[in-house]
Amino acid sequence: MQVDLGNVLDTASAHGVSREALDRLDGRVAAAHDRIERGREAGEHGYESLNLPNSTDPAAIRDAVSRFDDPSAVVTVGIGGSALGAATLTDALESDVDAYYLDNVDPEAVERLLDSLDLASTVVNVVSRSGTTAETLANFLVVREAMADAGVDWADRTFVTTGEEGNLRDLADQHDLPSLPVPDGVPGRFSVLSTVGLAAAALCGHDIEAVLEGAAAQEARLSDSLFDSPAYAYGAVSYALAERGLRQNAMMPYAESLETFSEWFAQLWAESLGKDGLGQTPLRALGATDQHSQLQLYRAGPRDKLVTLVRATEREDVAIPETDLDGLAYLGGSSLGELLDAEFEATEASLAAAGCPNVRIELDRVDEYGLGELLYAMEAACVLYGELASVDTFIQPAVEWGKRAARGLLGGGDFEEAEAVEEKSRLVVE
Ligand SMILES: O=P(O)(O)OC[C@H]1O[C@H](O)[C@H](O)[C@@H](O)[C@@H]1O
Description:
Blueprint: E1 2-4, H1 6-10, H2 12-15, H3 19-41, H4 52-55, H5 58-65, E2 73-77, H6 84-92, E3 98-102, H7 107-116, E4 122-128, H8 134-149, E5 158-162, H9 167-174, E6 179-181, H10 195-203, H11 208-221, H12 230-243, E7 248-253, H13 259-273, E8 281-284, H14 295-300, E9 305-312, H15 336-353, E10 358-363, H16 368-389, H17 397-409, H18 416-423
Parallel strand pairs: 2-3, 2-4, 4-5, 5-6, 7-8, 7-9, 9-10
Antiparallel strand pairs: 1-10
Helix pairs in contact: 3-12, 3-16, 5-10, 6-10, 6-13, 11-16, 12-16, 13-16, 17-18
Bound molecules: 6-O-phosphono-alpha-D-glucopyranose.
């Protein structure tokens, strides 16, 4: 995996991130790296996540899911960090086992999914770090009942990943469900390389060892200089640009298989860095599709965006048939992959020509190893950015507010946040 900052330097006159500015920033990267390494060594909350390439035991995960022989589908019931990491992996990789995610509690979507599945051959993978998240537990109760109604022994088809306490742990103990623990010190959005993200991938038959190997390769590249570490290069430059007013970061992979990766990245970047009036709003885009939609704004709208372009350099390809249609001869004989690459490079150059900084991230392939590299690098980039910005990367108090309010409204406790919802002023226009 490599990160090319060339276009950031090409657009430096507009945004001041010159080579000299990066050299000055590098001293701060060294201090931040030192802090991160100390946190990792002490197993501090959050920093522990960067130890997962070595601390996760893939054999234990395989062993725990091995009792589910040849499922037709895996439904992961979880939300946020308990779903997006697993979904990034299973959506990117091919498998004979269909992977679905019940994160939202949209009743129509839940019903549609349950109606479409053969529940007798489906594995339900319930994931919640806290074991108390209302959406996850509600969805699980609905799935459990649907299985019972279909005459399926739900306890025989359910797998749980959760912490040592909480409603989900109680339920797993009560019914003797097979389960895996969530490692300590790993917030949900940093948990893809743990039991949380890898159990679904293992159930789908993916090579989870290779995911961890890719992550370990990026871990080995962490160093006290941004010029030696792709992860730190990305984190430091994103921070420097945000400081100079580029408060939005459009994640734009040129691979359909990486579309869910942008969702995962959005949670990582938003929940970790959006604090104290700081942060960089993640935007989700897909190349080449969004060239024909959002690119107009990125190039000519407010100058507040970094665009992150991601692609794989090796992939399966499809030839474009020769044609004698007027004006289309240029397409014939080339391939869809070549067209996509041309679009990628054209977008990159077009943004740079307009003074819009963009970073290029290249993987060899979208496979288990490449995904491990990418996911670990983005996590390390995020931790570095948090250090440079002096925010507490590993908490999410603003999210907790809404969770308490929703619980209070449903009668699940006496929360002052629920009163605030009831008292809010309304201006209704009909
Ligand atoms: O894994 P859980 O405890 O169910 O939490 C699921 C999600 O809940 C909250 O919304 C947090 O802000 C997320 O960071 C977390 O990933």
